Amino acid sequence: MDPLDPVITALHAESRLRVWSLVITVFGDCVQHRGGAISTARLGRLLGRIGVEPGALRTALSRLGRDGWVDSERTGRLSHYRLSPSGLARFTEATSRIYAAPRLSPVTAWSLSSDGTPQTALALGGLWLAPADTPQPAKPAFRLVGRLTDLTPAMRDSLISAEHATALRRLLDDLDHLATLQGDPLTHAAARILLVHRWRRIVLRYPDLPPEVLSGDLAQEDPRARVAAVYRHLTPGTENWLDSAEGEIAAMPPPDSSLARRFHMALPA
Predict the structure, then answer these.
(1) Cα 158 to Cα 68: distance, rounded to the nearest angstrom
(2) Domain 5-103+158-264 carries which CATH code?
(3) Residue 192 contacts residue 68 (beta carbons within 8 Å)
(4) What is the domain partition of the chain in residue ranges?
(5) pTM as predicted
(6) Cβ-proximal residues to 199 (8 Å cutoff; 6+ apart), any chain
(7) Is the pLDDT of residue 250 over 80?
(8) Vertex 21, ends 19 and 22: CA angle to 5°?
(9) CA 59 – CA 212 distance, rounded (Å)
(10) Among 39-53, 102-116, 130-144, 178-192, which stretch is predicted with the lowest mean pLDDT?
């Protein structure tokens, strides 16, 4: 059996796969730290390993160009794509949220304030609850900092939506598989794309909750730390594939320092 089958099946089970969105994940994870451009040959090889047909990829690239996400240029027989200036601007904030570092210690101080955002804080009775070290969007009209001493199971359940909890549980199940994944460098590159795409959809759709407020079995896990560990496992093979050349697929430029800053884990370059 293909070692990627369980993860590909899980991705399709969550919602309809949008190839254009998968392409954006590839740009963020495999292209931006290696010169910013990728050939259609390499992109097709990578996404073909996930099961994306050439026609679907062409349609996705056409849509991304039409919507102002990417620019293209032709070199010989191949087209190369890169994020456009506007696409890059839209992409930057998402990148910082996707690859933010896991917490190194439990949250001991919490902030209850009058202002917050759904991406970084929990709505709680008209106020916003977040770890005290979370950057504030602006100086709030009211802010109280202290310890969180009691949190009942019912309250924990109310802080996370059923959809968010289900997405995390499904991801954690797949992390167990990816953490021991063996295979060739292309398989590792495809697996890293699948991992980041799943994580990206969760992080950009739901608040990034620390385990101290998660419910039940999720309270025993730190999803961001688990993702970071699996990312580290898959990175050497992925970067080896990006270094490789095969037929008309040329090696990509060497990685820049931004790779090592992902999840703040000093990933191998």
Answers:
(1) 39
(2) 1.10.10.10
(3) no
(4) 5-103+158-264, 110-147
(5) 0.90
(6) 98, 171, 227
(7) yes
(8) 60
(9) 43
(10) 130-144
